[in-house]
Design brief:
Elements (H helix, E strand, L loop, with lengths): L1 H4 L4 E5 L6 E6 H9 L14 E2 L16 H9 L10 E5 L6 E6 H11 L1
Length: 115
């Protein structure tokens, strides 16, 4: 799996029809599911994917223009009462394209390199 080879912790899953964000795969969770035999490496992505809850859920748009302080606050749960987050899906401002995924560890590593 390329996610494991590239040391990713989260992969987004998008619709092949309209590129809508459907959910994500947490690599640590996937490894656990494989180990427990709950999924097989031949299963489709949907069997291991965690779907995004759409109804009644507020989302914070994170873009490449989002200040790092705001991203840190997002991870710590201080943005809009959403609660602590393990990762952020980085999109364009209109939310049409997923540009990447950022984790708290990514942010910490980036800040250390800049110091």
């Amino acid at each position: 799996m390329s996610g494991l080879e590239r040391d990713y912790t989260h992969l987004t899953v998008i619709s092949s029809e309209n590129r809508a964000l459907l959910g994500y795969i947490s690599i640590p969770r996937l490894q656990q599911l494989l180990k427990e035999g709950k999924v097989k490496d031949t299963d489709n992505v949907e069997s291991a994917m965690q779907k995004f809850r759409r109804k009644g859920t507020r989302y914070k748009v994170i873009t490449t223009e989002t200040p790092l302080e705001e991203l840190e606050e997002f991870f710590e749960g201080g943005v809009d009462g959403i609660g602590k987050q393990d990762f952020a899906v980085v999109t364009d401002a209109s939310r049409k394209f997923v540009l990447g995924v950022a984790t708290k560890t990514d942010l910490e590593s980036f800040c250390k390199r800049r110091a």
